[in-house]
Amino acid sequence: MENYIVSARKYRPATFDTVVGQRALTTTLKNAIANHKLAHAYLFCGPRGVGKTTCARIFAKTINCLSPLPDGEACNECESCRAFNEQRSYNIHELDAASNNSVEDIRSLIEQVRVPPQVGKYKVYIIDEVHMLSASAFNAFLKTLEEPPAHAIFILATTEKHKILPTILSRCQIYDFSRISVADIVEHLEHVAASENIEAEPEALNVIAQKADGGMRDALSIFDQVVSFTNGHVAYKSVIENLNVLDYEYYFKLTDCFLQNRVGECLLIFNEVLKKGFDGNHFVTGLTSHFRDLLVGRDEQTLQLLEVGASIRERYRVQAQQCTPQFLYKAMKLSNECDINYRMSRNKRLLVELMLIQIAQLTLPDEDVSGGRSPEQKIKPVFSQAAPQQPNVAPQQPTVAQQPSNVAPATAAPHPAASVQPQAAPQPQASAPVHTSPLPKRTDSGTKIPVMKAGSLGGISIRQMSASKNTSASAATETQQQKQAVAEAQTYQNKPVQKDELDRCWRQFSTTLPIEEKANAQRMMNMHPVLKEDGVTFEVVVDNGLVEKYMSRLAPQIEAYLRENLHNYLLRMTLRVSEAGENLRPYSQVECFQMMSKKNPELLRMKEAFGLELA
């Protein structure tokens, strides 16, 4: 029985020209050999199975060839080449650093380096997985690596260059091997299949090349495995079954269902995928890659980026024309979010099914598939036709909805308003003085300050709609009464506002806040309202936009309280966010003393006179 040799060893390259996917590096080495410009140390680094050790062996054989070819290749006919091919050469030494990583092993190597070669010019020492050497072994190797004998050349190979000491790296010529492309792997697999008289479909070889992840050794090992499974006929179906790869067909069918909004079929396809034993995360990542390939397949220039067979590439091109770019962008975003949240989810199947449902609804018009998180989602106003009716009641009067005669007037809280400068316009009542907030009059300033009641949801209530209708019906008969009531309120209610009284009422209001707003009450105690020159407007400076938003919601209650206690219904509050360094507060005793001494320099003199120190 003939001894079987795996393809990775049987078809191992023997010359630089047969090395797959490393054309730049092999050309550099060939030119260095042809021009007799050889370094004393080389470092070959890169992923597994890309040809590092193979190139090191070819390089070692070529530099010892007695009659090299003009293009820099070995002749394979001289005694040195035959000895290397028959694995009996004494000029090439391979050392596995994973098992020979101690200082004693390096010392033994250094002793061997001193002996010159018997046949050929150079002794080549190939140290594989050099990053496995210990720190002591690296230090013992430094001097020899920097100044070796003229006949010694070191070739170090590793998959983890970052683990090697910088002092070693600086003494070597570094060659970075790249991953082998899918096209190069497929071409080499076709050559191997033809040499072995094996029938292989191009789509099957593409799947093997993608599964190898850029490593030729892995690709040849998978190829041998599939050949044994299929008994010499490598078909696409057999490959995906043997390698447990999800078929492209599922993704193409899913995309057709997405475009036609067939949610039920999407869930059934996903259920079939789970029954075949595939993990949900593997399915999601594959679906994301499928959307990416569809986006790439929309343009003829980027179609070549698809690392698939010709027939699969054509299917991508056809289906990509049926998808809009907006659909693909949103689908990739949803599937990527599902991939990110998959590990943290407790109900993983539900997470994937929600993603499928959302993608299936992307082509429906006016659908918010983002669950309300989309910034483009707009909330339509309720009663959009009722709001413009209020300003048309009386152009010279405040825009207020008149309460029916059988409704008691409000005596504590003001009515909501939407303008910035309110005028004294209380509700006309004949039986008792009015103590409600004046409603604003629209001005040309354009500035708006929200003054809704705290906890209000906004919009217009049904009571206000009813009152607006009654006001429109009786506006002609009650206009004169409103004018008379406004004049009486201005004469009776408004009193001059004093700064100390404003501060006192401000602090009293902060004490009326509920216990759950203790932090906000303390914040209000640190604020100081500033009364303007007009005597009815006071400004409050806040730290940031969040505090400004909270205070604007609280503004109706504050104004109502201050108007009631200060007996001035023209009072109004304005808010402003402080600038940098404007609203500084002392947090320690030293800072407090420094701020107080700026206002009263006598404090510094007193401190110096008595020799005081701040604790």
Query: How many structural domains?
Result: 5
Query: What class, by secondary structure content?
Result: alpha/beta
- What is the name of the CATH class of the largest domain? Alpha Beta
CATH topology of the largest domain: Rossmann fold
Beta-strand content: 5-15%
Gross geometry: flat
Relevant CATH superfamily of the largest domain: P-loop containing nucleotide triphosphate hydrolases
Question: Helix proportion of residues, in percent?
Answer: 40-55%
Strand order of the largest sheet: 2-3-4-1-5
Query: What is the CA-atom radius of gyration, in angstroms?
Result: 42 Å
DSSP, total strands: 10
| Count of helix runs | 23
* CATH architecture grouping of the largest domain: 3-Layer(aba) Sandwich
Distance between the termini: 96 Å
**Rounded average pLDDT:** 78
Protein model, in words:
It is a single chain. The chain is an alpha/beta fold. The protein folds into five domains: 7-176, P-loop containing nucleotide triphosphate hydrolases (Rossmann fold); 182-243, Helicase, Ruva Protein, domain 3 (Orthogonal Bundle); 248-361, Zinc Finger, Delta Prime, domain 3 (Up-down Bundle); 499-577, GMP Synthetase, Chain A, domain 3; 585-614, no CATH class. The protein is 47% helix and 7% strand. The protein is built from 23 helices and ten strands. It has helices spanning 7-10, 23-34, 52-63, 79-85, 103-113, 135-146, 166-169, 182-195, 202-212, 216-230, 236-242, 248-259, 263-275, 280-296, 310-320, 325-341, 348-360, 462-492, 499-511, 518-525, 545-566, 589-599, 602-610; strands spanning 41-45, 92-96, 123-128, 152-158, 173-176, 199-200, 233-234, 530-531, 537-542, 572-577. It has a five-stranded parallel β-sheet with strand order 2-3-4-1-5, covered by helices on one side. Strand 9, helix 21 (545-566) and strand 10 form a beta-alpha-beta unit. It is flat. The model is unreliable at 369-461 and 473-478 (pLDDT under 50).
